[in-house]
Amino acid sequence: MDESSSSTWRRSWPGIAIWAAGWAALLLLDGRVDLANQALVLVATAALATLWLPGWASALAALAGVAAFNWSFVPPRYSFSVDVEQHALLLATLLVVVWTVAALVTRQRRLALAAARDARREARLRTWGDALRDASDPAVHAGTLQSMLAEAASVPVALLIDTAQADPLQVGTPDADQRAGLELCLREGRPLGPGSGRYEEQPDVYLPLRGRGHTLGAAVLQGQGRGARSELLLPHLQALCDQMGQALLRAQGEREAQRLSDAAHDQATRSALLAAIAHDHRTPLATILGAASSLAEQGERLDAAQRRRLAHGIVDEAGRLARLTDNTLQLARLDAPGVQLGCDWESAEELVGAALQRARRRDGGQRLKAWVEPALPLLWCDALLLSQLLDNLVDNALKYSPADAPVEITARRQGEEVVLAVRDRGEGVPPAWRERIFEVFRRGEAPAVADRPGAGVGLAVSRAIARAHGGTLRLRARSHGGSAFECVLPVRPQPAVPQGAT
């Protein structure tokens, strides 16, 4: 007994048991009820057994049951002779009713099986669509599509997918003819083989992986053209293929949109650099050129104080130009995708001390103070970039606060973070500008801001530096006036201390 016969027997045994019970009841009722009531028992038995028996088995069992009923209970007993006037109509009606019940139950069972099959297919389509919707690269699910098609069609399946690379992605092992059919289906974007209206003589069915207006692959159902279920399966299999085609087209569109976005970003960065160079580099260059020309042409006629003033002007403007150039270049570099930092373990105390020394060499730097909390953890950072961040914040604090107001650099621990802050007692920043001033080329609208030189790049590059380190740069208004710019950096697991170190 093969597996299918065994499965049919397991499903049918309740029907056989019902027929046995029904005949037992007829034998018990024989002589106690009239023939019409016995016939009703036979109808009930046939109707109940049909729920478990196949349609053909129900029809045969009903015919055999009516014949046995005629032999066993209809006078004259133990013969197939029938009294036409008394019992022929009863037996004919009994057979028609039993066959009608069997036909209706069989049809209802077929409809239920079709509904269950459609529900499974709908669930498969929904699950497949969810998997593709969340996939950044749908081509990695090609093997899943192959498995689903093979399971639904019960035949081997091979795929050919256009991944916009040099060679299409092949899944499965198609032969030379099937590979040619896949390429033809991919080019034309139409099904091929039996049931498609094209190349009906082929033994295989080819289905395109269609997106909106594009075909990005094809599938071959090897030998499916010989299957009797192909007409019922093909719409479902084509829907599975089309979901993959739409996902591939969406992924291609996203990659193209990302490429265009990167190109637009690069162009915007280049334009910003050119604008910064054209606008903000011109003033210090003009000052340097004027002072240098005066020294070169009139140096002998100028006294020592005038020459020192011109030389200091050159140094100051050159330093300003250097900082502006560093900020502009760092902004372009940090905005690029995949930027790599030169990180190492650094001491917050050394970073703050170096920033303090550099600031005190500039005008007004003597009012700068520093405070560092003891026993701060080491920072995993790019020291040059963090130094540039602190220099930018200190330069802004000195520039936009009164000449006699103190400016502070502090470093403290806050939970699992280290906060480097530059605090001043200036006019502060209006609430509407507390986020906008971190945008490139934004400097605020206050007259005190417009009167001082600047490009609006320092805070933008400082926030980019903080974010590149996994931290953030924020502005906090101080309670008695002024601003505190705080760079918040995460604390990483500290490096092991070498043996013998103190």
Compute the number of structural domains.
4
Level-2 CATH architecture of the largest domain: 2-Layer Sandwich
Mean pLDDT: 79
Low-confidence residue ranges: 447-451
Can you count the helices?
Answer: 13
What key attributes describe this structure?
four-stranded antiparallel sheet; Beta-Lactamase; 13 helices; 4 domains; 11 strands; 502 residues; elongated
How does this model look, in words?
- This protein is α+β, with helices and mostly antiparallel strands.
- It folds into four domains: 3-126, no CATH class; 140-249, 2-Layer Sandwich (Beta-Lactamase), CATH 3.30.450; 281-334, no CATH class; 342-490, Heat Shock Protein 90.
- It contains 13 helices and eleven strands.
- Strands 6-8-9-11-10 form a five-stranded mixed sheet. A four-stranded antiparallel sheet has the order 2-1-4-3, sandwiched between helices. Strands 5-7 form a two-stranded antiparallel ribbon.
